[in-house]
Description:
It is found in: Cytoplasm. The protein has a single domain, classed as Alpha-Beta Barrel (TIM Barrel). The protein is built from 9 helices and 15 strands. A 7-stranded parallel beta sheet has the order 3-15-14-9-8-7-6. It has a 4-stranded antiparallel beta sheet with strand order 4-5-13-10. Strands 1-2 form a two-stranded antiparallel ribbon. 48% of the residues are buried. The protein is an alpha/beta fold and 311 residues long. It starts with 5 loop residues before the first strand and ends in a 16-residue tail after the last helix. The chain has helices at residues 28-35, 78-91, 106-118, 144-154, 172-182, 224-237, 253-261, 271-276, 279-295; strands at 6-8, 11-13, 17-19, 60-63, 66-69, 98-101, 124-128, 162-166, 189-192, 196-200, 202-203, 206-207, 215-219, 243-247, 266-269. 3,4-dihydroxybenzoic acid is lined by residues 22, 46, 54, 70-73, 128, 130-133, 194-195, 217.
Amino acid sequence: MLSTQTQIAGFSFDNCLMNAAGVACMTIEELEEVKNSAAGTFVTKTATLQARAGNPEPRYQDVPLGSINSMGLPNHGLDYYLEYLLDLQKTESNRTFFLSLVGLSLEETHILLKKVQDSNFKGLTELNLSCPNVPGKPQIAYDFEATEKILSEVFAYFTKPLGIKLPPYFDMAHFDQAAAIFNKFPLSFVNCVNSIGNGLYIDDETVVIRPKNGFGGIGGEYIKPTALANVHAFYQRLNPTIQIIGTGGVLTGRDAFEHILCGASMVQVGTTLHKEGVGAFERITEELKAIMLEKGYESIEDFRGKLNYLD
Ligand code: DHB
């Protein structure tokens, strides 16, 4: 019986497709829509301690080959998402969901993670080390010293399953250095990739989003080769106990298949979900299953990570 089920950190999911943080996950209404779709689970919008309005609009634009955004972390604050997830644990006790968070400072990140640690939350936590859009706040994951410091401090008290959302890296030496750091910690997963930061899209003579004079994170078709490279580079380098979530450029079942072939155990959909709505999950799942059927694969474990090389 052909299935796209998967496991992360020992939790089972009926489908390996889910939303990418930032899309369809700001409000409980949006999260309910993803939960009730063909997606295997959802991740919440990256939460800060206090609610935030985010950057001025327009701040997200779909474009022909993808999207550009500079949202600026609009969210309802950690308590909104945590309380919803604690409620869901009662009514959806056989499912597991992801909570995304990051503080605006190191101190705030610790406050957030200690709240989660001290709560009854039983799901997976994703620490976002890769938000490119808050003016004056560089991406943590491009600073390897800061990354190692935050992880060593966090794992001194955080004992629940934790993963990190990463930006794309573009250099083999960076893959080596980043993986050597991540391998020092009991991470459940790394999620590759967040948007390619600070691109610029121009329509006629003008940018298409207001914040930062039009600079914003790029998603969609533009980023699939970079996303696949990051998934596979970390698949090759990380301890097998650290699973990979593949995100970036998933428009079709074929794209999801390629992420899994590169080593992903779960695949997230961002730009396509924004363009198409939650019906994308059913379509992409059916396309993925058709490829598996044709190739004789019954589960994603039959081909996960089994990318072929030329000699
Ligand atoms: C935002 C964008 C990101 O890519 C991210 O990881 C977190 C937040 C944002 O602009 O809201």
